[in-house]
User: Fold these one by one.
Assistant:
Number 1:
Amino acid sequence: MADLKQLAGLIKELEDQLVVCMRCGMCQAVCPVFAETGREADVARGKLALLDGLVQELFKDPRGVNDRLMRCLLCGSCSANCPSGVKVLDIFIKARAILTGYLGLPPLKKAIFRGLLVHPGFFDRLLEWGAKLQGLFVKPVDDLLGTSCGRLLSPLGERHFKTLAPTAFHQMVKPMNTRPGASGLKVAFFVGCVIDKVFPPIGKAVLRALEHHGVGVYLPEDFACCGIPALSSGDTVAFERLVRHNLRRFTGQPFDVLITACATCTATIKKLWPLMAGELSPETQDQVAAIAAKTMDVSQFMVDKLGVGVINSAGTDKMVLLTYHDPCHLKKSLGVALQPRILLQANPGVRFQEMVEADRCCGLGGSFNLQHYDLSAAIGKRKRDRIAQSGCGVVATSCPACMLQITDMLSQAGDRVQVKHAIEVYAESLT
Ligand code: SF4
Ligand code: SF4
């Protein structure tokens, strides 16, 4: 638990940001949670009003405040639509840290974040065993989407989920440190947990595209989580340990850009590492700022740095009709929406078609999906309907976490639509 003096300082900092909200309600129109529940308490304005009286509420009903604050996807739709520029996500992230500092972290989360996540080697070994044994507990349900469900009573309920990959990315690919080739550029590759453990083909597609363009690659050994699962639960202790672990792996290496193929990792490194760096030493803060400034989504790197462009595919026979879902953390947090669309259309076999509400949240929201699955699935079904309406055989996106949610929704609906990462679609076209 944080001491009360420290908490008071954090609350004061929060109050300074809260005064910017003029209670106009523009955030209501775009909040996916409010669209399902119709409850003012679920929208950003309602949560900000609650936080305004945080000092009193902390002593009266801290768990009630925490529960209401956790009914949020951290999608950033409210921030993106706020005429006053209220930094809603920054406020919510800091408020969660304050409440967790006051209430303490639940034992299960403590065990996962501080016992597993911050020890990447141990975490990797454990999930390697999990990948070997998972067949005892799950059964495949959908060949096209590669989903499974629980054999008996499963804690994952009716979800159609992707299992752990039989071989994780870090087991397939050795650490790398190659020189720049024809492009003259070198990148550091931040893999992220979901790509490493569930979607290694995305990591392979990134390496394939980099090799094709003659880009040098630094891939460290023993890479770790970006820290977002811990931070979104208010655990700044585990978050800071993970930031320091990653800084030790990447700082001092000669690379031009740090790339990720996970929208959530990109937004976390670029926005949340600096936001939460206040308690770190000045030297560490400088390292955080330097890494954040160099971080880029892989499609942005391909298009803006390597000049990949749309290919005129007229006359091509094999036309795959494909649509795209904008991850909130890429479009709303970082403003990257054009580059993935260009990357997809750099594959001459693709015919691109926008879906309606392409940038509407898929409803995953990390632990939101675990704690409020009914709500998460209701939001996800709206996304599934828009994908089905597009008539496309493939939906691409730029975040492996969105891929988990979209896959679940399509699989439960029995749709014959493939889910791919934009870099996979691009890499398929490279000879
Ligand atoms: S957060 Fe922004 S959009 Fe929402 S009520 Fe406040 S000022 Fe209006
Ligand atoms: S971050 Fe998303 S879910 Fe949370 S209040 Fe804002 S719009 Fe609603």
Note: The chain has 23 helices and eleven strands.
Number 2:
Amino acid sequence: MIELQQVGYVHDDDSPWASRALDGISLSIQRGERVLVTGPNGSGKSTLAWVLAGHVAPTEGKAFIDGSPATESVTTTGLLLQHTRLQILAPTVAAEATRYNIDADVHRRSLHALGFDDSILPRKIDEMSLGQQRRVALAGLFARNCPLLVLDEPLAGLDRKSVSQLHAAVDGLPPSTTVVTITHDIEASAPLGTRTITLADGRLVTDSG
Ligand SMILES: Nc1ncnc2c1ncn2[C@@H]1O[C@H](COP(=O)(O)OP(=O)(O)OP(=O)(O)O)[C@@H](O)[C@H]1O
Ligand SMILES: [Mg+2]
């Protein structure tokens, strides 16, 4: 389903502040696979997330989703941004469903799966904790029924109960949903993946799959 061929990515390419984030990454991920991506800070995990979800085209090599350039799938992939507040542009939780054109009942069910009740709907995003904001962002993504979800550090800032709720919510996704989870906490993320890819300095160093 996803195929990367010798993917490289240089931020601000052709400028004096060009910065290489990915180098020579080749991998394939099958439909329905649950994959963890880990590695030290600055190893290229978030950049890889953007490439996998089709938000940016690689500056070298090729990225495909179902045989077409990954950027052509950008409206049907779901990317959870590492910086959650940048993801939720609506003023309240309920307004988030309108923004994505999600059916209100589907959105509510998705919020329930992430541990909220209906009292969350009128809440202002700016008055919520980071963990709550992240679960709201995830509920919006899950409700969109994307065939591919790329989650960049979904567990960061979540308490133990929220982590379990997230595990259960991912478990409840259709088996055909491909989920790539970027994480620096491999132990807490273990239930989210059956295959682990490790990056270092923008290169793929291990792939258990
Ligand atoms: N928007 C950007 N502009 C310029 N350089 C960037 C940008 N985003 C990332 N980089 C650089 O690319 C490299 C990889 O960064 P990236 O954010 O992909 O790594 P990461 O593994 O997600 O890091 P972290 O664990 O801190 O989230 C780093 O050297 C970083 O400074
Ligand atoms: Mg990152």
Note: The CA atoms of residues 101 and 144 lie 9 Å apart.
